[in-house]
């Protein structure tokens, strides 16, 4: 190749690379919170932003009404960046998103992660008028109620993740129907009350209820059967955390 050819070759090649980079074909980042997205006031939470190999900058953003604010940037080559909120409060609760930078482009934004702070109002109570040890296929109804104050929203949570929200206008309770249930519905449930005007600020958690969905054992329709089921089947019970 003559020098002129080389120059031309490079021009085409470099330009091509630049255009490719600017168009940006980067995977959508993932965002998650650990230990979960429902966090007691003053406790810490980690936000993980998953990008791509060779990304060198990650940016965490909190969403306002129509725009976002940059919360923190993390430099350094890494596939996942970890952001820590040391003390959850009403200012750090909200909707977060992240994105990363690789070569000349920003990735698109991740989905929004909703971080909730809890413990700002007294706890509601969680109850059921049915059974907490059930066969798969059954619907389980739970009621979250507040003794004194009227809230307009109630949420059901399983192991620090919000699973269902219930709208109530000026009520003292919200009803939840779980189901038809399968084995993966087994677990510890709590509920929270809140106001629609502050969607990320919730009450303290209710006392916990444990739901056990068991495929192997006799349906436990009475307390006696409940005890028999306890004696009969060790597997699912242990999985559900009953000692
Ligand atoms: C992005 O890259 C993948 C594989 O690397 C390709 O299949 C896809 O068509 C590309 N998308 C765009 C918009 O260029
Ligand atoms: C908040 O948590 C920190 C520990 O992370 C503790 O030292 C501090 O006393 C707590 N603040 C309140 C008001 O409870
Ligand atoms: C967001 O919008 C609501 C009403 O749509 C308004 O009351 C609130 O002040 C706005 N918040 C900010 C931070 O702009
Ligand atoms: C459970 O609820 C669903 C609707 O969500 C209903 O179609 C179904 O019949 C119910 N099953 C039982 C056993 O009540
Ligand atoms: C249980 O039900 C949920 C929601 O209906 C479903 O997403 C999940 O795959 C089911 N799990 C099993 C083990 O069947």
TrEMBL record:
Q: Please give the PANTHER family that the UniProt record associates with this protein.
A: IMMUNOGLOBULIN ALPHA FC RECEPTOR, MHC CLASS I NK CELL RECEPTOR
Q: Enumerate the spans annotated as Immunoglobulin domain.
A: 33-118, 129-214
Signal peptide from the UniProt entry: 1-21
Which keywords does this Swiss-Prot/TrEMBL entry list?
Disulfide bond, Immunoglobulin domain, Signal
Question: Quick check: keyword Oxidoreductase in the entry?
Answer: no
**One GO term of the cellular component aspect?**
plasma membrane
Q: Looking at the Swiss-Prot or TrEMBL record, what is one Pfam family this protein matches?
A: ig
Q: Which GO terms describe its biological process?
A: immune response-regulating signaling pathway
Name of the molecule in the record: Fc alpha receptor
């Amino acid at each position: 190749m003559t020098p002129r050819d080389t120059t031309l070759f490079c021009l085409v090649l470099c330009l091509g690379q630049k255009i490719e980079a600017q168009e940006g074909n980067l995977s959508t980042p993932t965002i998650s919170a650990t230990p979960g997205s429902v966090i007691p006031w003053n406790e810490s939470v980690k936000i993980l932003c998953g990008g791509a190999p060779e990304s060198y900058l990650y940016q965490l953003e909190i969403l306002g009404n129509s725009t976002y604010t940059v919360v923190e940037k993390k430099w350094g080559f890494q596939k996942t960046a970890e952001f820590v909120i040391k003390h959850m409060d009403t200012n750090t609760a909200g909707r977060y998103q992240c994105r990363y930078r690789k070569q000349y482009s920003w990735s698109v934004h991740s989905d929004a992660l909703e971080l909730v702070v809890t413990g700002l109002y007294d706890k509601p109570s969680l109850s059921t008028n049915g059974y907490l040890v059930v066969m798969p296929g059954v619907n389980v109804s739970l009621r979250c109620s507040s003794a004194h104050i009227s809230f307009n929203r109630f949420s059901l949570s399983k192991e620090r993740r919000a699973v269902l929200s219930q709208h109530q206008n000026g009520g003292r309770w919200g009803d939840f129907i779980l189901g038809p249930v399968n084995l993966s519905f087994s677990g510890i449930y709590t509920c929270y009350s809140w106001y629609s005007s502050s969607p990320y600020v919730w009450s303290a958690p209710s006392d916990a209820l444990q739901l056990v969905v068991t495929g192997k054992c006799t349906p436990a329709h009475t307390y006696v059967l409940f005890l028999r089921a306890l004696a009969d089947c060790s597997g699912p019970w242990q999985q559900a955390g009953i000692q």
